[in-house]
User: Fold these one by one.
Assistant:
Number 1:
Amino acid sequence: MKVDKSTRKPSSANIIYLIKSNNDLIDLNFSREEVSYIKNMRKAKKDIVEVNRFNKRLYIAYYPGQVSVNQKSEAIRVLGNKALGFLNGSKITKVVVSSTSFSGNDIIAFVEGMVLGNYQFLKYKTGENKKVNSLEEISIFSKEVSLKDIDELMVISSAVYNSRDYVNEPDSFMTAEQLATEAKTLGDDSGAKVEIFTKKKIESLKMGGLLAVNRGSINPPTFTIFEWKPKNAVNDKPYVFVGKGVVYDTGGLSLKPSNFMETMKCDMAGAAAVIGGMYAISKLKLPVHVIGLIPATDNRPDGNAYTPGDVVTMFDGSTVEVLNTDAEGRMILADALSYAKKYDPELVIDIATLTGSASRAIGSQAMVGMKVNSGKEFVGLCKSADKVHERIVEFPMWDEYGDMLRSEIADRKNIGGAEAGAITAGKFLEHFTNYPYIHLDIAGPAFLAKSNAYRTVGGTGVGVRLFYEFIKSKVEG
Ligand code: BES
Ligand code: ZN
Ligand code: ZN
């Protein structure tokens, strides 16, 4: 998809007029009949009205009514996606988005809804099954939008597209090594440094959690470090993002029933969010030192797979009694969180499709967030989350929940009880941190069985826009 700025509206162009009220129709050169048609449609509560002029189509998109400021941006993104549906429905390839009454932010939100909604994953479709969306080009006709705004939107969108691609790729393609290669490709593009630890290096570091989960796999694990350290960084200590990169989660010997396994290629969505977020941050050269850590492997049963009852010595030297091999995310994240200590970080945020419990509790509308000593950072993150509509619901880090992880034979076990699974998972991870820390569980919003406005079916790329917005807020205060 191409988005540019246009200084004119050719008479043959398809145009979307963004307006606030029917008063704005006056300057738009519609005929009297057209105006009365549009007003009737508006009366019938339509927020997009299509006028067919045969050689071109004109659209009126009405500004959303009474909603709060953040909800308004979201309502406008959703409106943009709705307009996109009309355009693709009418097989339109190019459109001009024109507005004198929307602000620059609003117009960008509208176009963002269009661009994100136009994503498709067609790699494995062939012949007539490969139905490509028609829209290819959007020109923005407005003084309120700069080329810089458009560049930012396009980089963020391509980061989201990449992140969705990684999740939508089946694990036969997206192995741990492939995931690391994707990170390297994006790092090379943006000018960030990407280092990939191979199995040998991971063994020499004694990352016991990552190696235990990998024991059932015929593919080696990877541990990727994606670092953006600009000379003009505003921070002394880095922000660190850690993403769960389980490229496929069968559950291991604690095998998942197949209806729960079907979508488990999405179990590296946290890693995809970190790679996409790091790409946007570095490509747009935000002056902030940020590091992404991505432990990756698949989780499978096999002759050598780790077992329920096994005891694993982790990277930090502590021991874990594995009572369920399906609680594998926390095993690999724990090693990455311990590894993050060496950076003396300002804050570490992990992001993971960690528990069915999180998804059952709040569904796909939000992610679960938990915090430890994070001061104002959690409030700031929630603010960014509201802005980009990747919302966070806080769950408690109360110590009583941690008691559920006591083991008879090791330092702790890898599962709590039947209840509060999202919280005990967070408590498990907390043990491997000694810095300000936020844990995000995206098991609900990472992967959709059917599209939700501009969040297309399959991988959503959730987390990418959140991380970019959060790091940007460090620059702008
Ligand atoms: N990858 C799953 C969690 C998940 C479930 C992600 C649904 C996306 C959608 C995770 O590894 C897992 O299996 N968690 C178990 C933990 C349990 C064994 C303590 C769960 O949530 O059931
Ligand atoms: Zn699992
Ligand atoms: Zn998992």
Number 2:
Amino acid sequence: MIDLLVRGGCVVTPAGVVKAGCDVAVDGGRIVALGRADQPARRTVDASSMLVLPGLVDAHVHLGCSSWDAVTPNDWYHGTAAAAVGGVTTVVDFATQTRGRLMMEAVDAWRSRADPDAVIDYGLHLSITDASSATLDEISRVVDYGIPTFKMFTIYRSHGIMLEDDQILEVCRRVHECGGLPGVHAENAPIAERNYARFAAKGLWQPHYHALAKPDYVEAEAINRVLFLARVASAPLYIYHLSTALGLELVRRARAAGQAVLAETCTHYLTLSADCLDRPDGVNYICSPPLRSVADQRALWQALSDGAVALVSTDEAGYNAADKARALGGPLEAIPNGLPGVELRLPVLYTQGVEGGRLSLERFVELNCTNPARVCGLYPRKGVIAPGSDADLIVIDPGRRVRLGADTQHMPVDWCAYDGLEVAGYPQYTVARGQVIVDDYVFCGARGRGEFVPGRLDWSGLSSLGLTDPRKADGPAA
Ligand code: URP
Ligand code: ZN
Ligand code: ZN
């Protein structure tokens, strides 16, 4: 007797969409068979006329994150529970080093918050905030621990997390030597800081000026610079939350020249524009990089289908409206940055991408499940429906529609970035390591059942994303 049989669905596998009538057999938390299964099961989920996809992997979240005195309501329990309702079975957060302290202290701090509360499995990136010899010497330990991806900031000077160019070069070199993947939050700090100061001097505090302080070239210049530094270091590069057509053009050019670079974008850069900042609740929409133009959105959708952008994540960092509004009228940099979205990527992108005719179901799965798992070193355990992989599955009735709003979302944030949008795609069932944790749209997972999953990069698999290990490629010389 096996634990679970998901019977008769239209299943998205690495070989393509199995049109209908495919069973997924689950035992001991793993997928044990695909196709026609006739084993008796303790539980059977009828998936006929339903889509069966791998659980989504969100490669970029900040759960329970804080900005000055505000904390996001999506903490490790509420955020992962809402994620599960939205079909996410793995999240990857950022353990952020305190400058001058060991990175493993940050890892311990993140794990001590996540382990008692996470409902779904999780991985970690390391946000690296200094390039001292102690930090550089610690990188191999962090990679060996199972955290192979490192984020560097070219901005957020006042938050004490920005790295200078020489430090970025050193970190790229050392992360690469240790078998990890350096990545960047790319925005030009001096230009943005000067713009903020210029607007502040004129009393221009409105959210509108947040986007004007960081126009597209602020992102593109930093991408250009860090691409160059990574090239000098012969290191691969992960561009987090790419938001502009201008930055994308640089990524395309580097890839065409053989540089090992991959880009992530986020749900909001595909679907929301800077016009949101002019609404009465515009302060809610402050995030970095800022929301952009419709032309930028169009370029990013194109990049999703032609492969120039490899994955979509949410950059979940949703503060309550009052916490955002409290900072209005003062420096724009002091407004908590980020949008709530960990629950909403599947319905919003299924509706606008798959139903909207922009993405095939297979490409949707690559962008939201398989590629995020690869980039974070979690594949093939995560991100795929295949025998031997963790039984992380979602079952979707594509005909069921929901109107999004603060009252329909499960995230405890008091506003909804997609208020009023009608969507399909919420899963009826979410199965995580073989356990049904969303049953007929109702969350039933246990607090703390989620586990840390160590990440190990598979460079041969990453080559399918254009990320050949530069140590082995005939790339640009160091
Ligand atoms: O506005 C954002 N994106 N906040 C989260 C922090 C980051 O830079 O990813
Ligand atoms: Zn960032
Ligand atoms: Zn982020």
